[in-house]
Amino acid sequence: MRDIVMLLFLQTIIFLSLITYAEESKNIEELREVNGIKKLQSDDLKSQEASTQLEPITLRLIGKERLSIDLPTAIRIASSSNLDIAEAKAQVIEASGNSNAAFGGLIPSLSLFFGYGYTDGDVQGTFGEVRDATFETFNPGLIATYFLNPGEAIFNLIAAHRIVDVTRADESAITQDVLLSVVENYYDLLEAQGMVNVAEKAVSDAMTLVKIAEILEKQGIGPGADVVRAKTQLASKKQVLIRAQQEFRENSANLALTLKLDSSVTLFPGDNQLTQIHYVDRASKLDELIDSALKKHPEILSANIQQEAADAEVSGAWLGAFGPEVLLEAEVGGIGDQFGDIGGREIYQAVVGISLTASSYGEIKATRAKFRRAQIVTERVREGLSAEVVKAYDEVLSADEEITPARMELESAEESLRLSQVRFKRGLGLAVEVIQAGDALANARLNYIRSIIGYNKAQVRLLNAIGEIRVENLVGVRQ
Which residues contact 299 (CB under 8 A, 6 or more apart)? Predict the structure, then answer.
């Protein structure tokens, strides 16, 4: 008889558990329909672009002002006001001035002179009679002089022009690095906003848990220990929220510094929708991306041009040592003993020769070594760019693979928390179960946000690795 009663009791428990589980599952499905959420299979998840909504946040400002800024605006501000870019542009102007100076060396120089002389005493021609004389001499004139080593001057001019191209390529590389920094800082700010969102939701859930635990305790359904656990959880989540808000302000200051804005102004992202963005065509193959980087990246362009400039300097050093030098001079003037009696005079001379100096050997040796070093630098840049593209490409693939499990984790964590809350409200579960489910959901939300941001960052790094990170490529992207 006792065994029969025990069997009936176990069957009743199992039956009630099944009814409870069915009701809980029904409640969860109804909640999903209300929120417009449908259960997704793995294949469905892979076919969709990742996206999540970021809620506006309220927190203590760094100073007294706040400013909303979106990514296109941040990019344009950096392009026009960043100090690194401004310095690179100044270097281009400096190199252009040196190139103009090298070109000026090919143009004859003009000298306008006016001479005055006073003689008092004995004078004599080379073999003439010695005489006593006193006179004044006025000698105005204009001299045009053209003295140079033509070969050396031409190759130095070529090298100077190449240096201008080098500084322009360097400016492009610096601009791309700055734009990469701006995008990364902006996404860091977006991630920080997501962290504050998650922390705020966790605090709200913890406050709700405290209220429910207190009600259940008053009704005699829940133990007092659940209230203590819930309050401990609430205090912990409030600390997490404070740290998330502080990290948001820190990222705001970092972005303001990059944009040359007042760091005391708290910047808030203007984008409330975080979406997976493809800055680089997903159909692009690794070999194609490497070839593109080795042809277009500013660093390889700069290295190649530096090699050409060094080669021109070698030729200039050889011609400077053994090339012919030309001196052409024309003088037009006059001479006389008073202003009313100045006679015209013209003097012309042309000299062609070679100047040999002991320093020529050292100059040739130095320029040849510089050319060899430029070749080594070019090869190093090629290898470095190839490796950078490979790493960036793999980072994009890994980040893309991470999004799907992150989204599935979020969906499962939402379901788990809802189930735990239903059980807890009915007195069938413990507060610790709700706390653990809440922690899991907070981590899942953060992981999902970070997976999207991580993918977007990886895409921008790949764009930078192939040398294509420009304003138009960042603003006009495909989602």
Answer: 169, 173, 381, 384, 385, 467
Query: Tokens representing 308?
Result: 């050409």
Q: Dihedral (C-alpha) 413, 415, 418, 422: value to the nearest 10 degrees? A: -130
Is residue 191 one of the residues assigned to a domain?
A: yes
Domain that holds residue 222: 52-113+158-308+370-475
Instruction: Identify whether 79 is part of a domain.
Output: yes
Task: Quote the pTM value.
Answer: 0.72
Q: Is residue 343 part of a domain?
A: no
In whole angstroms, what is the distance from residue 161 CA to residue 80 CA?
Answer: 26
**For residue range 425-435, what is the model confidence (pLDDT) as tens digits?**
777 777 778 78
Q: How many residues comprise the chain? A: 479
Centroid of chain to Cα 447:
24
**How many folded domains does the chain comprise?**
1
CATH number (domain holding residue 235): 1.20.1600.10
**Residue 321 placed within a domain:** no
Low-confidence spans in the chain with pLDDT less than 50: 1-47, 478-479
| Alpha-carbon gap, residue 413 to 442, rounded angstroms | 9
Q: Is 250 helix (H, G, I), strand (E, B) or coil?
A: helix
Helix/strand/coil for 282: coil
- Dist. CA 290–CA 83, nearest whole Å: 30
